[in-house]
Design a protein that fits this description.
It is built from 2 helices and 4 strands, in the order E-E-E-H-E-H.
Length: 78
């Protein structure tokens, strides 16, 4: 099985957002208004992850990477 990969860029200058880019070059931008919404987004993404998938969280300190990762883990069943 070839793992799927995505890069999630957290925390743009305009506020919390997640930008996912797939190997095929597809981009999707989702802006959230709170830590709760960011964690919920991570949970939704986490439920779609499959064994072997790779997710890289990229962004400055305070961008929301940890909050998003907490949601990813919860959604993935951790």
């Amino acid at each position: 099985m070839v793992p799927r990969r995505a890069v999630v860029q957290a925390g743009a200058a305009r506020g919390p957002e997640a930008v996912t880019t797939t190997p095929a070059g597809l981009r999707r931008v989702v802006r959230t208004r709170s830590a709760r919404a960011t964690e919920a987004l991570g949970e939704r993404i986490g439920r779609r992850l499959q064994p072997g998938d790779v997710v890289a969280l990229v962004g400055p300190v305070g961008a929301g990477k940890t909050v998003l990762a907490r949601g990813l883990a919860r959604g993935a069943g951790a």
